[in-house]
Design a protein that fits this description.
With 341 residues, the chain is of the alpha+beta class. The protein folds into three domains: 75 residues, Winged helix-like DNA-binding domain superfamily/Winged helix DNA-binding domain (Arc Repressor Mutant, subunit A), CATH 1.10.10; 159 residues, GAF domain (Beta-Lactamase, 2-Layer Sandwich), CATH 3.30.450; 89 residues, Enolase-like, domain 1 (2-Layer Sandwich). The chain contains 13 helices and ten strands.
Length: 341
């Protein structure tokens, strides 16, 4: 549990954190006095900064007399000093418009979410596709292609669209294919693959051939729907001065490529609600010692739930990151809720 700081120490800590986030340069007492004018001397500010350092909120590089925040300092800033932050309404409208312009396709939503998070938060984004317990049938189209080959287009209630070519024993006119598709749409609307398998409808040989392929496609979609992780904005983090050293770059690449680590981190947020902030690995993940991660769950409980977030240096613009992650998570939750009706 963090101790309660005096108002002046809170002010000094907040200014050091904000100044360091903005400049990536250690902050000295002279800077605080000259730029923010707290009405006290430089010596008083130095004493307060020394106290904050003794208590573990600040530290200083060997090459500089200025201070930089520690993990504890950033944590105090996020929880006690930053306050609530929201994306400007104009940006919210732009993001919402982008999603509503996109096709009703879960994979496209995931890629768009990763791109929006990276661009808006100026960080590297992570989006874990929602885990779907069972995919459900929504709509089927059968399109005549060439000779006896047809294109089967399957739309799942989860927003996924799957296509597969199928060779029939003989060619059929488009009107006949439409009649078959309409009958199967009426029979299987809203059913899972397992429910379709156990259904007792009398099917023609053609319908049975199509249904067998449907079940195979739905099972494949279920297997792929859990575990896909989308990333974007890798260069955003490499542009930060903290990652000018090649070893730090390797560390970040390991984090992004080591699937088990990402899944463990993302799983943390699925068991919680709201935005979670992980600062410097917090003694649990050495690979994140130079990073902060802002995460949030999204989706509809009991049907499809995923997680998304952004990764950057500990010197992150937390207000911007948190408000972006919160907004995109809420937006995806609304979209999935509409999808499931």
């Amino acid at each position: 549990m963090m101790e309660e700081l005096t108002d002046r120490r809170r002010a000094v800590l907040g200014l050091v954190v904000r100044q360091y986030i903005a400049t990536a340069t250690p902050v000295g007492s002279k800077t605080i006095v000259e730029q923010y004018g707290l009405g006290v001397s430089s010596a008083t500010i130095r004493n307060e900064m020394a106290y904050l350092e003794e208590q573990g909120y600040l530290t200083h590089p060997h090459t500089s007399a200025g201070r930089v925040p520690t993990e504890k300092g950033y944590r105090y800033f996020v929880e006690r000093l930053m306050g609530e932050a929201e994306l400007p309404l104009a940006e919210q409208r732009t993001i919402r418009h982008q999603f509503h312009q996109a096709r009703l396709d879960l994979e496209q939503w995931m890629r768009l979410a990763a791109a929006v998070l990276a661009r808006t938060a100026h960080s590297t984004s992570l989006v874990a596709a929602p885990t779907v317990a069972q995919c459900c049938f929504k709509h089927l189209e059968l399109l005549a292609a060439h000779s006896s080959r047809i294109l089967l287009v399957l739309v799942l209630r989860e927003g996924m669209v799957k296509q597969q070519m199928l060779t029939l024993t003989h060619s059929l006119a488009q009107e006949e294919l439409n009649q078959v598709a309409n009958r199967l749409n009426d029979l299987f609307a809203g059913l899972s693959a397992d429910q379709i398998v156990t259904s007792s409808y009398r099917l023609t040989a053609l319908e049975e051939q199509i249904v067998n392929l449907l079940i195979e496609m739905m099972k494949g979609a279920e297997a792929r729907s859990s575990g896909e992780i989308y990333r974007d904005g890798l260069m955003n983090i490499f542009r930060q001065p903290e990652f000018s050293e090649i070893e730090n770059v390797r560390q970040i690449i390991r984090v992004l490529e080591e699937r088990s680590l990402l899944e463990t981190i993302l799983a943390e947020v699925l068991n919680s609600s709201g935005v979670q902030v992980i600062i410097g690995g917090e003694g649990r993940w050495d690979e994140l010692s130079e990073c902060s991660v802002v995460l949030a769950p999204y989706g509809e409980a009991g049907r499809a739930v995923g997680a998304l977030g952004v990764l950057g240096p500990m010197r992150m613009r937390y207000g911007r990151a948190i408000s972006t992650v919160r907004y995109v998570a809420d937006l995806l939750s609304d979209l999935l809720c509409d999808l499931y009706g």
